[in-house]
Amino acid sequence: MPASTAVPIKPLNVTRLSDQIVQQLETMMLEGSFKPGDRLPPERQLAEQLGVSRPSLREAIQKLAARGLVTSRQGGGTYVTGHLDSGFADPWQEMLGKHPELHRDVLEFRRMLEGTVAQMAAERATDADIERIGTLFAQMEAAHRQGGLDLTSRIDVQFHQALADAAHNALFTHLSANLLTMLHTHVHDNIANLFAAGTVSAQLLDQHRAVWLAVQARQGAAARAAAEAHIDFVDRTLTSLREESVRRERSMRRGAV
C-alpha cells in the first residue's frame, strides 16, 4: 500500500469578533462617516446596528481607545478623536502665521488638490452627496446675502469638505480635512480681504456656483476647471490687494520724510 503524502495545510486565521468590529469602525472613520469630535451611538444602539454583542463591542472600543482613535469624556459618551489627522495641521498653521509668503504656496497646492477633488466628486458623488453639497451651496448664498464673514468662511470650509467627501477617496477626505483645518483662519482672512475688494463677493459666489452646477451635472472636466478658476481668481485678487497695500505704505513713508 503506497505511503500517504502529507498535504501542506495552511492554518486558518480566526479573527476575533472584536477585531472585526474595530476594522468596521476604522472603515467608518476613514470614509468620514465618523468624523473627529463625533460621538459614537450609545453602546446598546451601536451593538444592535453592528449585530454584535455588547461585550464584544466594548472590547473593540477599548482597543480603539488604546490606539488613541476614540476617547471617553466626562459625563458619558465615546468620541472620535483627531488622532488620524494629528501631526499635520498644527505646525503648518503656525508656519503660515509667521511666514505670509507661504500663502502663495498654499494656494498653488489648493489649486491642484481642489481641481482633482471637484472632478472626482462630479464623477463619483452619490445622490446623498449631491444633496449635501447643494444644501451647503444654498447656505452659502444666504450667508453672502447676510454679509456675515464668520458664517461665510465656515460654510466655505464645509462646502469644500463636502466635495472632498464626495470624491470617495479616504486620503482626499482626510487630507482635505487637515488642510481646511489648517487654513480655517487663512480662509477667513482671505474672504475678509476679498470682501474689501468691492464686487468680489458676488464673483466668489458665482465661482462656487459654477463648481456646484458642474458637480451636479456630473461634468468632471468642467468641475475641475471651475475649481481651478476659483483658486486662480483668489490668487490674482489677493496678489493685487497686497501690491496695493505695499504701494500705500511706500507712499506714506515718503510723505513722512
Please state the second-level CATH architecture of the largest domain. Answer: Up-down Bundle
Oligomeric grouping of the chains:
single chain
CATH topology-level name of the largest domain: Four Helix Bundle (Hemerythrin (Met), subunit A)
Distance between the termini: 113 Å
Compute the CA-based radius of gyration.
24 Å
The H-and-E topology, N to C, reads as HHHEEHHHHHHHH
Query: Any idea what the CATH superfamily of the largest domain is called?
Result: GntR ligand-binding domain-like
Number of strands: 2
Q: Which overall shape is indicated by the principal axes computed on the Cα atoms?
A: elongated
Helix/strand-derived class?
A: mainly alpha
pLDDT under 50 segments (min length 5)? none
Largest sheet: 2 strands, antiparallel
User: Strands across the major sheet, in which order?
Assistant: 1-2
Continuous helix count? 11
Protein name: Pyruvate dehydrogenase complex repressor
Keywords: DNA-binding, Repressor, Transcription, Transcription regulation
GO molecular function: DNA binding; DNA-binding transcription factor activity
Function: Transcriptional repressor for the pyruvate dehydrogenase complex genes aceEF and lpd.
Search tags:
about 260 residues; mainly alpha; Arc Repressor Mutant, subunit A; Four Helix Bundle (Hemerythrin (Met), subunit A); 2 domains; two-stranded antiparallel ribbon; 11 helices; 2 strands; about 0% strand; repressor; GntR_C; transcription; DNA-binding
